[in-house]
Amino acid sequence: MKRFSLYVMIVISLFVLVACGGSDSTSNSEQTEAEYSIAYLTPGLDLPFWKYLADGIEAKAAENNVSVQVYDSKNDASTQLQNAQDAITKQVDAIIISPTDSSSAPAVLNAAKEAGIPVIIADIGTDSGEYESLIISENEKGAREVGEYLAEYMKEQGWDGPVGQVTISLARKNGQLRTAGFESAMTENGFEIADIRQLEDYTRAEAEGFAQDLLTAYPNIRAIFGQTDEPALGVLKAVEGANKLDEVAVVGFDATPETIERIKEGKMLAASVQQPVLMGEMSFDAALSVLKGEEVEKEIYVPTILVTKENVSEVEEELKRTVFPE
Amino acid sequence: MNGLVENPMNVSKRKSNNLIKTYRTEFALILILIPFIIMMSFASPYFLTTSNMLNVASQICVIGILAIGQSYVIFTSGIDLSVGAVMGLCAMVMGLAMEANGILFGVILALLTGLTIGIINGVLIGYLKLAAFIVTLGMMSIAQSLTYVISDGNSVTNLPEKFNLLGGGKVFGIPYFLILLIILFIIGHYVSIRTRPGRIFYAIGSNEEATKLSGINVSFYRTIPYIIMGLLAAIAAMVQSSRLMAVDPTFGRSLELDTIAAVVIGGTSLMGGKGSLIGTAIGVLLIGLLRNSLNLLGVSPFWQGTAIGAVIIIAILIERLTNKNK
């Protein structure tokens, strides 16, 4: 009998759990009584960049009385499609998606098209399929700028060694552009690319391991480019750990508040910083325009900001607004 | 051992009123599942709709197929941590082969890949008596790595149009993959309770020594579940790639944990010797419905892991409570 009552308790507590979930969501929707509802599919909230992008969308949505639900794809194409299906079931008015990579987007675009739901793509890009607008950073230009700054610095130092890259997935369009932009800046200035390593998990630990390997395999390496925020800090940690801060320059793409601190301290040379909050805001604006029946550009570019030791104090305020909200 | 007495293989020999005793855990799970579905249908108007249920079906299909094999493995008190990675490898082999030489070639090559890996896993564990946990952990790493080797880290996106039939085609409104999943479950269940090999799987998990003494070739029968698992991984790879019409190298990541969770939620003991595919089917369904509900209720992605984890623990608690009182 005791066991039976325990079992009943479990069932009841499950009920309560579901009931809480249910009442929660209804109270939310009553509060806002939103005009439109939008789903945002993010590749993975473990990377700060995507969280900032989501923050940008959510902030703008709150201003405009639109409800937003964020779905986490956990860097998995199949989870992404499942989330898209769930959002379509909930009859959202529009979907904003940052695809896990360019090849996984078409499946979502097709599902949305079947349901007649407009899609805005925020970053990454897609291999094929129909969408309203693509909002993306000037990846190639940004990578080229940070590459040119690095080349300048290396010439000043009289360094001629090769450089390495820890890249984001080269299956992503932005990965190809960043890699190409940096490479062309380096080769035009007479520097060689020793090797590249491709991130899979986008974690600091993974990038640290890759950078350690690069330092070991190429003892004369003079700089490493980390292509996104957390991994760039992982690269820095590896260089610091090898006691090579004076011999190897670290440059990055994207920034978290920690990146800015490291640039101020002079440990990191420079970073080309995308503006995820601004990108989120612009993606939301594009989605809202589509819903209101207005024309939107097929491709909208978000500029990057080159942050160096010289300009870091000037741009810091701007970064706090458009790159990482407090 | 209790396991043998409890075993579903004895169902046929017992009176029907013992059915409830034999499938006690399964009935307890259904008693949770049904109230859960009722609650959800009140909490969200979209939950109990045909389109949403078909979505859930498409979302659980891959886990479901893999969970059949995982159940067999766990019946024999083994474990297969490589399923996700093997599925990823099969998908990549298939994708590349299909791009070059057409659908049939890709399908055959995928099945051969799954078969080969299954045999290697099985022989190492069954005949060479290595620990299943370690062998399959190693195989997970190998399969993941080979996926990157053969794909060079790129995605395959040019799958033949016709291949979409499996993931997108329907007959009388029922998707082909769902029919496939149900057929596989029926065959799987039949084999596990009505055939000699099926009974031997339970017997090995329940008491290996006694099984050996009764003249059964334990090494051979220990190998079979891993081979079945490999083939099912290839089939799951087909479903997954056909749904997404793309293969990327991250396919299948962390699916091994999802399948193990589904099997355990279904009342199968990790110690082997008991459980049933009916339980596994309910476990898969519960995970799928729960994940879908959390999305429909708008639960933050940060909280979803907590909810799913809690359900796994509660499910094991139920298994413990329903199995002790005899």
List the helices and strands and how they pair.
The complex is a heterodimer of chains A (326) and B (326).
Chain A (H helix, E strand, L loop, with lengths): L1 H31 L3 E7 L5 H16 L2 E7 L4 H13 L4 E4 L7 H11 L3 E4 L10 E5 L1 H19 L5 E5 L5 H16 L4 E6 L5 H14 L5 E4 L2 H13 L7 E5 L3 H9 L4 E4 L2 H16 L7 E4 L2 E4 L3 H11 L4
Parallel strand pairs in A: 1-2, 1-3, 3-4, 4-5, 5-11, 6-7, 6-8, 8-9, 9-10
Antiparallel strand pairs in A: 10-12
Helix pairs in contact in A: 2-10, 3-4, 5-6, 7-8, 9-11
Chain B lengths: L1 H5 L12 H4 L1 H20 L6 H26 L7 H19 L1 H24 L5 H20 L12 H5 L1 E2 L2 E2 H19 L1 H11 L1 H6 L4 H27 L10 H11 L11 H20 L4 H24 L2
Antiparallel strand pairs in B: 1-2
Query: What's the assembly state of these chains?
Result: heterodimer
Low-confidence stretches of chain A: 23-32
Provide the gyration radius of chain A in Å: 22 Å
Which protein chains make the most extensive interface, counting residues with beta carbons within 8 Å of the other chain's beta carbons? A-B, 48 and 56 residues
Indicate the percent of residues in helices of chain B: over 70%
Number of DSSP E strands of chain A: 12
Low-confidence parts of chain B: 1-6
The dominant shape of chain B is globular
SSE-based structural type of chain A = alpha/beta
> Main sheet of chain A: which strands, in order across?
2-1-3-4-5-11
